[in-house]
Amino acid sequence: VFFIDIFFTFQVISCNKNICTLQITDTTGSHQFPAMQRLNISKGHAFIMVYSVTSKQSLEELKAIFDVIKEVKGDLEGIPQMLVGNKCDESEVREVDSQQGQDQARRWGCGFMETSAKTNYNVKELFQELLNMEKRRSMSLHLDSKKTRSQFRKEKLKGKCVLM
């Protein structure tokens, strides 16, 4: 699971001819400090929950972390989230097939992708997809907040006298 925590790395990716910098924190082991984990979740804007496809237990352990994210953030609607099955290059020792990961992602309402940090498979694409999710969310919020002139006038006139 990645969200703001103990140490920072930066990933630079291109987004519509602009350069975007993502601040990423590896929270491995943060379960030993639940207060710190909750604080960092509250400050996080996006979440990548990573399990190993070679360990069914690693996927099971994410369920508790997802529950904490849900509890701290409240409504997760629109918050960019990805469930990621890493080590997909190790097919001979796979314990979690791709369909199981997709099913879990659907239950949690988040995106899904398999990666290999070893071969760099889908790593850049993962961060690009997370950024695309954030851009779609921002655009949706922006469009929802715009009102037409007539909507604005109707709201302004609500509760006023009407001439007939």
Automatic annotation (TrEMBL):
Major localisation: membrane
SUPFAM superfamilies linked to this entry: P-loop containing nucleoside triphosphate hydrolases
Keyword GTP-binding: yes
Extent of the signal sequence: none
Localization per record: Endomembrane system
Matching InterPro entries: P-loop_NTPase, Small_GTP-bd, Small_GTPase, Small_GTPase_Ras-type
Record keywords, A-Z: GTP-binding, Lipoprotein, Methylation, Nucleotide-binding
Membrane topology of this protein: Lipid-anchor
Name of the protein described by the UniProt record: GTP-binding protein Di-Ras2-like
Originating organism: Limulus polyphemus
